[in-house]
Amino acid sequence: YTEAWDADKKSIHVMPDTPDILLAKANAANVSNKLYVQAWEEAKKKGYDMRADAIPIKTAKASRDIASDYKYKETHEKEKGHYIGCPSAKEDPKLAWAARAMALQNDRLYKKAYNDSKTHIHIPVDALSVQAAKECQTLVSDVDYRQYLHQWTCLPDQNDVIHARQAYDLQSDNVYKSDLEWLRGIGWLTEGSVDVVKAKKAQELLNDRLYRTRPEQLKFTSIPDSPDVVLAKTNAMQLSDV
What we know:
- By secondary structure, this protein is an all-alpha fold.
- The protein is 60% helix and 0% strand.
- The longest helix has 13 residues, at 19-31.
- One of its GO terms (biological process) is cardiac muscle thin filament assembly.
């Protein structure tokens, strides 16, 4: 049944110029790393020709000569013995220029005029800035902020003083507990107090000996003609072998 279908599946042929096939090939070429670096690999195989008089070589040599310390000091070394003809070092233009450059770079000389002029500044006492600073200092000063009240002197027999003393005595803890001072050192027995009596009553209620009476303390006498005794005697006579 499936033989014809299997044979038909093997005979399917897709045209190589269909849009899907062309798109797949283009995507494979874009993704391929080998094709991406192919031009670079071929350029490396051809080699390169770098001449000594090429512009990049000359630029590199010139930059190296400029950066070289030997080339930088070569002119100075050649002119060392040619400073003859000046009567003093101040008349030499190069030495004068070096001294001027050193003075400009010196921080102490740069601030000398400013340091000398700092001591010649005079500010009037009634200047606005000085007055504003004084007022600001008064506002933020803790001494001026806290002004203690005047220590008044009151007579001991004034009504307000007497009333204040009475209020202090009422609020005082020592005066409040002064009526209990006579109790200190006095002995006291707990017998008869409320807590002791309550504990005794609770102990009597929880005492098992007082709550129930043991059986051996009860006086018991058996009745000889009770039904259970008579029945026991009859059963004993019936079961007796004698």
